[in-house]
Write a structure and sequence with these properties.
By secondary structure, this protein is an alpha+beta fold. The chain has helices at 4-14, 42-45, 212-216, 245-249, 296-304, 308-317, 319-329, 333-340, and strands at residues 55-91, 102-105, 108-110, 113-115, 118-131, 142-146, 149-156, 162-170, 173-185, 188-197, 221-235, 257-260, 267-271. A hairpin with a 5-residue loop joins strand 7 (149-156) and strand 8. The protein is globular.
Amino acid sequence: MNLERVEKIAEAVLYEGYMLYPYRPSSVKNQQRWNFGVLYPPSWCNPQFGSDRFSMQTECLLKAGSSTRLTIKVRFLHIVERSIAKVISPSAAASESSKPNLEPVERFELAGRIYQPWQEAVERELSYADLDPADFASMSPLLFSFPEGNDIEYLRNEQGQAVGAIVRAWKALYGSVEIRSLRCHDDVVRITVQVENLTGTNPGIAFDSASRETVLLHSLVSAHTILGADNGEFLSLLDTPAGFEDAVAHCQNLGTWPVLATDNADAVLSSPIILYDHPQIAPESAGNLFDSTEIDEILSLRILTLTDDEKREMRQSDDRTRGILERTENMPEEQFMKLHGILRGLSPVKEEVQ
């Protein structure tokens, strides 16, 4: 079992919608973050009576034997709130142990670079390896937590004095992963993975009246699940093998869509984005663009038409978007030609019978 290929595809899912073209915080479409697969705190979802979820469930079928072992990974983004501040009394000695007084600002310029507030993200992963499908028919939920924290990056002038700061802060997240199995057809078992956001379930904590921007800080963003099997084979839920129609019909997937992710069916990617079995990253793609509602060629050409001021904002807004800009500006002409279109193969046309 090699999950490297699956994780490359999952990476594209993870950052889908992270920042949309034209990749600038000042752009209207980036003023409110949107992502697929957000698991909100329960108290936010319950009063909404809408599509917002606090849990997701994956169910798929696995042909397993006594030597079959499972690896299950749950991955998501944890939103980090980036704020900008200026130092009240600039000092060369500013550090974590001797914090100067900071005053929050909406914009700070230093050495020709502009710093602005933004929502970044860090990747979180929960991994459960070497699982025997026969052992977790009634396994208790596995609890997880990520404590709140903050980090200060000081901005220094030419004299080495701390004159500003980037303050990154993240809220605590709590949740559970429940893994179950049920033998449903000879050597085939139904694997269930349920992920829940339990943040705010303590008495006195509620998010029902909070803004969406606030709630996202307490949410699992772009949540998805990867399942891998050693000495086992997953069955397709899209191209159902004969005789397993009833077992497939009983698989209940909530907020997620599982597909076979490898050619030998030893891995499943269950994501909030609808894919077909055996998804692939096009070899012509130079990298993730976060906005797959557009094709690579159009987005790349649009990036090149941005003004110098727009490129400056894109470059300074986020490390990931700066990487997109630099990659696109340095893309050779032959790479652009590949993005325009490529012939992968020819098939003979069958003659019609007269």
